[in-house]
Specification:
The complex is a heterodimer of chains A (about 450) and B (about 230).
Chain A lengths: L4 H6 L5 H24 L5 H10 L1 H36 L4 E4 L4 H8 L12 H8 L4 E13 L2 E6 L1 H7 L3 E4 L7 E4 L10 E2 L2 E2 L15 E7 L10 E4 H7 L28 E6 L2 H10 L6 E3 L1 H44 L1 H10 L3 H42 L9 H17 L1 H8 L3 H6 L1
Parallel strand pairs in A: 3-9, 5-8
Antiparallel strand pairs in A: 1-10, 1-11, 2-3, 2-7, 2-10, 4-8, 5-9, 6-8
Chain B lengths: L4 E9 L5 E10 L4 E5 L6 H8 L6 E7 L2 E2 L5 H11 E4 L11 H5 L1 H4 L3 H17 L14 H14 L4 E5 L7 H17 L3 E5 L3 H4 L4 E6 L2 E7 L3
Parallel strand pairs in B: 3-8, 3-9, 6-7, 7-8
Antiparallel strand pairs in B: 1-2, 1-4, 4-5, 9-10
Helix pairs in contact in B: 5-6, 6-7
Classes of the chains: A alpha+beta (about 450), B alpha/beta (about 230).
């Protein structure tokens, strides 16, 4: 459970931005109040500056340690959200997917994220039933299984290409069996030709379709999904090069795209269905959830997956909190040790008659400066780490993950600063309890 | 304000219970320069810190002008030091990263706003009189003699009636030490302050009005000097 949930509930009448700002203010308020109480009437900053400069490398190392710990927390939160948003964005064009009964997750990974999987095919009758259902605006077969280098070669229709990328970045839609439209990140140019392999990855048979040569006719706009790495060809071509009927009766043998003739429809692993109205999608899902077909919303499957992963996230959150507590304890111990470096100077102040509160404010301000500097640097490190990891994840999965800083990260940092700055009172108290004469003579 | 010193039955013990210092009775008139000599470990510094209200495990009475430090709380003792006592240490104890002026005006950092300007002005004035012309420079680059002059300026900046000096010349060469003690004594005399200086250095206590000698925690001689 989010510990901030009760606070959010109490202020849910506010606009969202105001809620986030209010939560941040509430989180840092204890630190601000403590700071005001400690500093009222004193200006310890020249001495704090001197203390910071005196052991600047030790202080810098301490700031860096705080920054790395804060950065890890910030980076993890930003990365997790970025990954969630990226996967959701990738699934966005896939309103409703119909396939043979099986695992929704397996089929979602295969059809949406183009992760190879052997799945049963849907028959032409089923496709025809789907395509002719009322209010269906798009029923696109998705026939995967071939590849070129690291790009999956997927058979579908021109309507499907337009659904993914309403405007092509360059070139034109395929108008011939052996033309292909490529994703934005496919390393081919317009006019290039290539021969697909049967299968994907290490198991691909590179000579299985040696007689086939596709020519690139167009390139899609970036979609931020694995489809940016995909090559889409007419589904008729995929069927034909596998020695199957091409979906059309002999008198229409040259036709590309729907309507398909059920008698000449070899089968498809999945059908992407889209309708103008949301309720139609729900009706279609109900209609095609049968013993022969499985209909699912990838968005819902993702949400269920996130929900399942939510437990893991909760465990990770608890671990993150425990880590932050350990880091805080480390910060506290470090501050006590650092304060001992200045024991003689603090003893001098007390010998000269400085009020205990002034000495207290010097130690606390010094600690608070280190903590605040570390937290600010940590935000920068977290942002940089998240951006770097996002690039790696995007490159590995082809899902565009954009990790940007948002309010949860600032709330985490605010809570960390508030907690540690309050705990910094402890080394300040410890500094005051040290024997003056002993420290003066040390 | 005249702050004569009166000590009655002062006893300072170590944590083990051993007596470190025992002064049954001692009086020092305000405005006097008192030297404290004796061998190392005799209890001279313990005596000096006790006079500032910094002694632990102490009993008896240490009264400055009727204010008995022994009955005050630690915070009240600090307040007394803040207003009435300036201290000079053997190894200067300056903030190396601050300028001479900032070091000299250090008491202003924890004083009321109204006093801060007064203290800064006085600190600058004392630095001038001690020949520190480059008060804006950090003391890192200063010689030992210059550093101790800055420390003296710090001790005098809040215009205390009492100056306590612990081996003020011990870290200096002979020539610098002579000049420094000359300047210190001159300035406290000009301003009518009480100076109590613990030192091994004969050049210090030959300039004092009175010299006491502490051996094994007890005053074994008390000499009032002529002139």
């Amino acid at each position: 459970m989010n510990p901030l949930a009760p606070l959010y509930r109490a202020i849910e009448w506010m606009p969202v931005l105001a809620q986030d700002i209010t939560v941040l203010v509430v989180l840092v308020m204890p630190a601000l109040i403590v700071g005001a109480l400690v500093l009222v009437g004193f200006r310890p900053f020249p001495l704090v500056r001197a203390m910071l400069w005196r052991f600047r490398w030790t202080n810098a190392l301490f700031v860096l340690l705080i920054a790395v710990s804060v950065g890890l927390g910030v980076g993890l939160i930003a990365q997790e959200r970025g990954l969630r948003q990226g996967t959701a964005r990738a699934a966005d064009p896939f309103d409703l997917v119909i396939s043979a009964p099986g695992s929704e997750i397996t089929m979602m990974f295969a059809a949406v994220y183009l992760q190879p999987s052997d799945v049963p095919l849907l028959s032409g009758e089923i496709y025809d039933e789907v395509a002719n259902a009322p209010d269906v605006t798009l029923a696109a077969p998705i026939a995967f299984g071939d590849s070129y280098v690291s790009s999956p070669v997927v058979g579908s229709t021109a309507q499907f290409v337009t659904h993914l990328s309403p405007d092509l970045a360059e070139g034109a839609m395929f108008a011939d069996r052996l033309e292909a439209v490529i994703g934005s990140r496919v390393d081919l140019a317009l006019g290039d030709s290539f021969t697909p392999a049967h299968g994907v990855g290490d198991a691909a048979e590179h000579d299985a379709h040696a007689h086939v040569e596709y020519v690139v006719s167009g390139r899609m706009q970036p979609t931020g999904s694995p489809w940016d790495r995909a090559i889409i060809v007419p589904v008729e071509a995929v069927w034909e090069i596998h020695g199957l009927a091409n979906g059309h009766a002999p008198e229409n043998a040259d036709q590309l795209g729907p309507p398909f003739d059920p008698d000449y429809f070899p089968g498809t692993p999945a059908i992407l269905v889209s309708a103008e109205q949301l309720y139609v999608n729900y009706a279609l899902r109900a209609q095609f959830t049968t013993d022969r077909t499985m209909a699912f919303f990838p968005g819902t499957v993702l949400a269920n997956l996130y929900s399942l992963m939510g437990d893991v996230r909760q465990v990770m959150s608890i671990m993150a909190v425990v880590t932050q507590i350990l880091v805080t304890a480390g910060v506290l111990a470090g501050l006590v040790i650092l304060t001992r470096l200045f024991a003689r100077r603090l003893a001098l102040l007390r010998a000269l008659g400085a009020p205990g509160r002034f000495v207290f404010s010097v130690v606390w301000s010094y600690a608070a400066t280190l903590i605040f500097s570390g937290a600010v640097l940590g935000v920068a490190i977290g942002y940089g780490a998240a951006a770097l990891i996002s690039r790696v994840v995007s490159a590995q999965t082809d899902i565009l993950v954009t990790a940007t800083l948002s309010w949860p990260e600032f709330h985490l940092v605010g809570a960390f600063v508030s907690l540690t700055v309050i705990l910094a009172l402890v080394p300040a108290f410890i500094a005051l309890s040290r024997p003056v004469v002993t420290d003066l003579r040390s | 304000m005249s702050l004569d010193l009166k000590i009655d039955d002062l006893e300072v013990r170590a944590a083990s219970g051993r007596v470190l210092l025992s002064v049954p009775r001692l009086s020092v008139a305000a405005g006097m320069c008192l030297g404290v000599k004796g061998p190392s470990g005799a209890g001279k510094s313990t005596f000096l810190f006790s006079l500032a209200g910094l002694g632990a495990n102490s009993s008896g009475a240490i009264a400055w002008g009727g204010t008995d430090l022994m009955v005050l709380s630690p915070e009240a003792r600090a307040k007394f030091r803040r207003h009435h006592i300036g201290m000079v240490f053997q190894d200067f104890l300056l903030f190396e990263e601050l300028s001479a002026a900032a070091n000299a005006a250090l008491p202003g950092a924890y004083s009321r706003r109204a006093r801060q300007a007064v203290i800064a002005r006085k600190a600058g004035d004392v630095l001038d009189r001690l020949g520190i012309a480059h008060g804006g420079r950090t003391v890192e680059s200063f010689s030992g003699g210059e550093r101790q002059r800055v420390a003296i300026a710090r001790a005098l900046a809040a215009d205390p009636e009492i100056v306590l000096a612990d081996e003020p010349t011990a870290s200096l060469d002979r020539k610098t030490a002579d000049r420094l003690i000359e300047d210190l004594v001159r300035m406290v005399r000009e301003e009518g302050k009480t100076l109590i200086a613990v030192s091994h250095d004969p050049a210090v206590y030959t300039r004092m009005d009175r010299v006491i000698e502490i051996v094994d925690g007890a005053i074994v001689s008390d000499e009032v000097r002529d002139g």
